[in-house]
Amino acid sequence: MEANKQTVEHIPVLAGTLAEQINLPLDGVMVDTTIGYGGHSLLFGLSLGSEGAIVGFDVDEEALEAARIRLKGLKCKVILVNSNFSQVNERLGELGIDKVDFVLADLGVSSGQLADFETGLSYRIDSPLDMRIDKRLKTTAADIVNNTDEKSFADLIYRFGQDRASRRIARYIVHQRQREPITTTSQLAAVICRALSRPSGRSRKRKHPATRTFQALRIAVNNELENLKELLDSAAELLKRGGYIAIISFHSLEDRLVKVSFKQNEDLGVYKVITKKPITATKEEIAANHRARSAKLRIAQKL
Length: 303
Description:
Blueprint: H1 15-21, E1 29-32, H2 39-45, E2 53-57, H3 61-71, E3 77-81, H4 88-94, E4 100-106, H5 111-115, H6 141-147, H7 150-161, H8 166-179, H9 185-195, H10 211-221, H11 224-238, E5 239-249, H12 252-267, E6 271-273, H13 283-288, E7 296-302
Parallel strand pairs: 1-2, 1-4, 2-3, 4-5
Antiparallel strand pairs: 5-7, 6-7
Helix pairs in contact: 7-8, 7-10, 8-9, 11-12
């Protein structure tokens, strides 16, 4: 049975913590670069007046529609943009917005996206091996899995998935695709389990063996790290003096990019880094929202 993204509950991560750290003026302009279903934007939007604005970016059209419904009662203006956040400067320029008070990015994949049959992000759901969150992208995960040479594929799994067994996994996948193309998430997960000699999949204490390879493919398909670099490079120009940038990341590759960017801007006298160490979720939040367990929040302020 196909899952409907809008029926899957999505709880915004570290929302309360963000609200404690950042206060917006009544006429503030917030750019939620990954608005999703609008959870974070709703929290901040409640504090904005009629002169304030939220500009929400997302590549997922269904998420934008859900956000539109969720935010329709706010006093502030709400502008939704179907675009990747790597294009934030260009899109805001088209809207006549020069400077903003707050740039936010929650880099996590939503529960709804994981449950979506067509997107194929999860090894738990047997679905087409696609992984394009933005359907305008050309290359799918199946394209990479079935057409990339073994060495390059192993390098991709190691670089983006940080899996030390990347060469073994790539070898098994190439061997399998010579028999028949790998076109579904369950096919790929089964091959990875065989490669790592764990046919039963996930144990209580260990991640599912396919976790890192699926992460690597999702990052590659959606150009996630390149897009994050573009956002980080753009944000300093967008922020007003005293404005904030907050990034919630979910794996070390993302967090490292954010940490380095913030530190470089601090050394240049552009930012003051508010979070010398990343803020993580409390035990209570993790118990209520399991996806918060790996979230890391970093905040910087424009000087």
